[in-house]
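Write out this protein's structure.
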Amino acid sequence: MGAGKFFPGGSKKGKAQEEKAPEPIRAEPPATKKSGLFPNAKSRFSKPVDSKSKPGVLLMSVAFCVFFISIGWYYLAVRPAKMQAAAMAAQLAQRDKEVAELKKKQEEVQKEAEKKAEAKVIIKVDTRPPGAQVVVAGITKMTPATFEGLSSGKATLVITLDTYHPITRELVLEGGQTYDLGILDLSLKSGILKATSPQKGATYSLSGPHSFSQSGTLPATLEKLPEGSYTLTATHNGWQLPPQTLTITDGKETLQEVKFPYGTITLQTTPPGASVRRGRQEIGQTPLTLSELRPGPHKYSLEKEGYRTVRVEKDLKEFETYPITLTLEKTRDFTNSSNLALVWMNEGYWVGKYEVTQAQYEQVMGRGANASVFRGANRPVENVTWQQATDFCTRLTEIELAAGKLPAGYRYALPTEAQWNNFVGDANYDSAILALGNSIAPASTADVGTGDPNQFGLYDVLGNVWEWCQDNYDAQGRTRTMRGGGWLSSRDTFPNKNTRNGGGVNYRDKFTGFRVVLTK
């Protein structure tokens, strides 16, 4: 067999066999086209394989392939799987370790928490203002407050104080801790008050919770008033209304109108122009509207020269308007040249409207003649004797006769008791200058005409000073009569208007004066 010859099957038969069966001549197969990057390159491995060694080579090739496949499988599959398994095992081990550590830590935390939970909690709290009620875990105290021995956990703190907004706080308490909440400012519940009045110049005084006090003039708007009950007192022209109670509500506006229940009286006369007097004070002329009058009794006298004085009385009700229309009666009243007002009595004489004043006494008798204790031009003359009073009447008659103002056949004199009993009329104690059981007695005389007139328009017929009369007080004629009572008269010394007193013609004191009549 020549080199390079290949016999299929790789037979190892002998020469005899080879001679008997000579190989037929065959055409050479076409050259196989080489592939690869270098198809014409020659390699030392390109030597033809000996047919005798082909099975070994094949086995080696298979073994080699198996080896490389095994190595590849190992590195590509087995080894990564082992490494992955090892990594997973390591991760599991690490996780188990971490779980163990976490469990240990949780156990430690739990033990610590249990330890803290067993320890008690302290809470300290105060408020501004103090005295608020604090409730924690069902325990109630007043600020400043300290709560001791509280358990850990969640707790609600509630602070309340009347007229203040409550404070609520949710607390998480840890055992063994002290919580100092400091001073908590409480916010007042407050509202607004708007107070008005139809009367101009009305003033108010307001008092309420938390020692609140304020005063001023109406109308007024008061803001941020603490919630609660208030007392409002209003005053106008010296009249103070009964206190009113009102309530201020948090966040709301309260309206309060203060109305003084004044009444009104209208006065009209025919003819008009009559002087309207309250006591001796002239307050206007008719027609006249008197407004802002307090409810209750009101008395006025209407005077006009040549007309009878008229007295009007009205018990005025709250918010009432009362009209009065009068026709004046002509009369013979007049005022003499010495400024003495004289009232005509139908019995045929005139009587002085007022007791003789110090100014009138000095005008008639001279400036140095006045010996009164309680000085005042319009106060009644007092500390005069019966004789001095009689001399005054004589001198006044002379003056008026010279002035041409003395009616024919008339003279000035002290009144008789009969005349006094007549003109005292319906005078009463209500407005008289008397100490009739009053807790505080008058300290002196008062200006004439201070009280109200009687039905005839005469003033101070009772009180102010005792009035000398012409008549004897005793049967022997050693004393003269006094009537009407004085500023210090009382129930004991002057039980009624029929009471009489007496003194000698030269007796005088600070309780006694006189009134004149113009009589025939």
